[in-house]
């Protein structure tokens, strides 16, 4: 008997958390699994007396009920589960990520991270969760799904995830090659050119297969920008979701984050972010 793993949304009573809960409805329905709304009560907020504990639990109940109401308002036939856990938000959500196909959080609303527009909880779970993570921004005017195809091992999984999201949401799909800039930084010219050629050949084959398999999918290839941020800056309000590979915001062997500023920059561009499955590889 297979274990049903719900799509999980971390909620905290903020408007971005409500956006994340609503965004996740289609994800749960597409997988035929429940949607679980989780609120983490920080033990430090409970204090030492009964009054503080009661207040913390009342806040949790209000927040989770607001999210429940927002999901119900979609009038979609999704099964909703509610859970309140006694833990700090980051460890609570990372622990929950071991038991879900997708973890969703609002782009902000939890404790905000310094100068950027992304919350510290969202930033932490993107880098440490055991599953794909969606960081959901407030819905804007953008329609397109944008896949960042960077030539890393999980690029193919990111492409498949982008195709799935475009079909799920009835959106056009753009695939942007970003490996050229990275190859120029890492390799000598002749090696970089060979890696460019191999990556392009791989992508061309996959694009051809998707066009044949899904003739109704609006699919385009973008090769005229060095980075995703450059493209978003040049084309504001056109993208609703950026899909990136699992390694994009990981850490090197020495523990340093590969791209410490990229996550904030993507979310600040006003679109949601989705990382692909860390277990998928070429």
Automatic annotation (TrEMBL):
It comes from the Bacteria. Residues 5-136, 143-248 form the UspA domain. InterPro entries: Rossmann-like_a/b/a_fold, Universal_stress_UspA, UspA. Belongs to the universal stress protein A family. This is Universal stress protein. The lineage of its organism: Bacteria, Bacillati, Actinomycetota, Actinomycetes, Mycobacteriales.
